[in-house]
Amino acid sequence: MPLDFRRFNGPEDSVSYKIYTKDYLKTYDEQLKDLYDENGKRKDGRELNEARSMCMFCMFARTDMVSQAKGSAYVELRKTKVVCSVFDPREIPHQNEFRQLGQLYCEVKFAPFSCPRKRRPYVPDVEEKALSVALRQALEPAVCRHFFPNYQIDVLIYILEHDGSCLAAAINAAGLALANAAVPMFDIITSCSVAVIGNKMFIDPTEIEEHIAKNSTEVNHGIITMSVLSQLKQISDFTQIGSMDVECVTKVMEVLLKECEIIVPNIQRVLVVDVVKNFELKKHLEAETKKREEILKKKMDEWRSLLNGQ
Amino acid sequence: MVTDMKDVQDFKLKPMKCEFNFLSKSDGSAILSQGDTVSLVSVNGPLDIKMTSQRIDKSTLEVLFSNKNGKPSVENRYKENIVKQTCEAAILGSLYPRTGINVTIQELEDYGGFLACTLNCTCLALLNSGVSMRNVFAAVSCAVDNQGNVILDPTHAQLQTSTATMTFVFDSRDKSLITCFTDGCFSQDAYREALERSRSASDLVFAFYRDIIRKYCNVIG
Amino acid sequence: MSEVYKLIHPVKHFNDYISIKTRLDGRNFDEHRNIKLNVNSIKTADASAVVKCGNTTVVCGIKLELAVPKAEEPDLGFLITNVELPALCSSKYRPGPPSDYAQVINNIVSEIIKNSKCIDLKDLCIVPDKLAWVVYCDMVCIDHDGSLVDACIIALIASFKTLLLPSVNYDTETEEIKVETNERINLKIHGLPVATSFAVYEHFQSQIILLTDPTNYEEEMCGGNGSNLIISYNKGLLCGIQKLGGGSLSTENNEEAIRLAEQHTIAVEKVINACLEGKGTNK
């Protein structure tokens, strides 16, 4: 890898200390056994088919996270933490033909410390690029792109901590941020994911569950993320990693559709809170500035009279 | 064209030698040596730059710093920023809107106080290029040794034993502080003493500027 | 009305506020914003801290790695600090490699940490010439609203304070490495460096005004790139003064800045200590 001159670099051959710990040498079967106990409960106490968004305290979402951005959102699914900000539409640099539809520029970036296994590189890697593309494809059907031809909206995602289903979290956050930025949209977009290992389905998987699902040797294994426009009953994106038979996929889709519906009221609640809060805040700010403006006005009048007097 | 500078008042700076128009193709250039430290600066401008970096209210200053091995690094960006911020305060950029002024710096020898030497050299090169300036500026470096004494314009040997180095840049009008950057740990008193001593010593640099400009003006006639 | 005035006559608008001795957000000149600090909120990092100074938000995460020390410095470990300014933190930045400004901030933060000598690199060495810790500290700015260096330093120091190094067994004969994550020791921190940013505003060509803990808008109005004056303290000693751009300082301004920075340092130290006591240092 070429040396990065724009940052401080550590020694080239450094390795994470985790590869020297005992846990690192666990076999696949041992890891699989660790995922759930005899009662079928997962490590964090959930049932296999229980999503994190279901329990009130696990999903946390808010808007107006980034003051400098037009719209922003923060979504927390237990440990997965995602920040999203959306900026004003801007002209597309270096383009020579007229575009009927506005463009969405999506970028997903992992923090260097976000993954439990290894340090993330600074330059975008394959996974980040794939996530960016998936995010764009999911959002494009939801945004009224014909309202801003020849312009582009930047949707930037930063993943602070990765504990599974980060694409779903990113799509949910992006939907909230776009709404917060007052970008016209057709519908509320929600997303959820499922990891499949053999005959077991893990709804809203954690990082370790995803990891095992990806490397599993079973016939049915992999991760499916689906995003849904709930009112329109449309699926805006369907991303699958791994291989599954048709029966399994249809079953997963049914489950995901249901899960996505469940998230909608949560998102609606956040948006309503956001509108109310902004309204209150504006009133408060206006009252406060009025006081200061009053003094300023006096000063202005003073100057004006001085100018006219001369 | 060489001017020496020794034993003025009781403050001593390392001997300074300067030559203008060292590079024939640039609009203005200067090579300055302070003791063993040598720096070469060329100034080009005002010139045409690409639309995206043009500013409607003033000229855009671009500084390129390259050290001896020529490799880019984070430290170089920081040094560029120091020179850029210092020059921006001094140049009357509003006279040249929508243009660019390029300053290119090459490190030749670094035996302590390199950035101070570079800043002085940049000021001379700007004077040589004829860009309009609000004021000139002078950089002076100081070191604090392990006993806490302040040494003005330290030599290479003195720097090896010092705990901190500071560089100050003053403007020529009211000797106020334009730029300052430090390295190492030091007490408040040491900082104050270094600041005041450097402020007085900046007179020597300004006198040197006047001297060298006078000599060149005579040659031009 | 006020918004229009601000857009059309930004300088005049700003001047008017300054002449009635208030700032746009209603603060006094020497008042700093509230600091909120939270440690160890990110479990994938070995130590982490989130800090909010007003709107400015910085997340710092530390990852530990092992490497062979450099041949020329066999008894020193590595401390790598990097500041990230991703495009989402402000509309000023575009996606891609770090901007020049990000590199400048990166250099300032790393110099302050180095100069304050708050971490002895010898403590990071496990076996001289064979094995040493590499401490990667990544500070990510989530929201850039001025005084970035202050927030970065607070986040970094708070994470250092909570960092626990796992114990390592190194067999000199077989060169086998064993890491015990359950037995951890605190990293020694010498002092508590704190940086204080100021914007230096030249009011009507003569009067110099120091704005403590400036917002992004104030930094832009004062000219220059970011904060104009950054003063850092560690254990009562100055460990870095950077003055770049903005108005020029007279001796009195300088004294005032140093006095304000000293006060701010004490206040910030209290915040950090209160946060760490409340949380406890164990994970």
Secondary structure layout:
The complex is a heterotrimer of chains A (310), B (221) and C (283).
Chain A: E1 15-16, H1 28-35, E2 59-63, E3 71-77, E4 80-86, E5 90-91, E6 103-110, H2 126-139, E7 151-161, H3 166-180, E8 189-197, E9 200-203, H4 207-215, E10 221-229, E11 234-243, H5 246-309
Parallel strand pairs in A: 6-7
Antiparallel strand pairs in A: 2-3, 3-4, 4-7, 5-7, 8-9, 8-10, 10-11
Helix pairs in contact in A: 2-3, 3-5
Chain B: E1 16-20, E2 28-34, E3 37-47, E4 60-66, H1 74-90, E5 100-109, H2 114-129, E6 137-145, E7 150-152, H3 156-161, E8 162-171, E9 177-184, H4 188-220
Parallel strand pairs in B: 4-5
Antiparallel strand pairs in B: 1-2, 2-3, 3-5, 6-7, 6-8, 8-9
Chain C: H1 2-8, H2 10-19, E1 35-39, E2 47-53, E3 56-67, E4 78-84, H3 100-116, E5 125-127, E6 131-143, H4 148-162, E7 164-170, E8 177-186, E9 194-203, E10 207-212, H5 216-221, E11 229-234, E12 237-243, H6 251-279
Name the descriptors.
heterotrimer; A: 310 residues; alpha+beta; Ribosomal Protein S5, domain 2; six-stranded mixed sheet; four-stranded antiparallel sheet; 5 helices; 11 strands; 24% strand; globular; B: 221 residues; five-stranded mixed sheet; 32% strand; disordered N terminus; exosome (chain B)
CATH top-level class of chain B? Alpha Beta
Helical residue percent band of chain C: 25-40%
Shape of chain C: elongated
SS summary, helix count of chain B: 4
Provide the CATH top-level class of chain C: Alpha Beta
Mean pLDDT across every amino acid position of chain C: 87
Please trace the helix and strand order of chain C, writing H or E for each element.
Answer: HHEEEEHEEHEEEEHEEH
How many structurally independent domains of chain B? 1
Tell me the number of helical segments of chain C per DSSP (H or I, 4 or more residues long): 6
Q: Please tally the β strands of chain C and state the result.
A: 12
Task: Classify the helix fraction of chain B into a percent range.
Answer: 25-40%
Largest interface: A-C, 55 and 59 residues
Poorly predicted spans of chain C: none
For CATH, the homologous superfamily of chain C is named as GHMP Kinase, N-terminal domain
Give the name of the CATH superfamily of chain B: GHMP Kinase, N-terminal domain
Quickly give the CATH architecture of chain C.
Answer: 2-Layer Sandwich
Please give the radius of gyration of chain B in angstroms: 17 Å
CATH architecture of chain B: 2-Layer Sandwich
The name CATH uses for the topology of chain C is Ribosomal Protein S5, domain 2
Tally the structural domains of chain C: 1
Which structural category do the helix and sheet elements of chain C fall into? alpha+beta
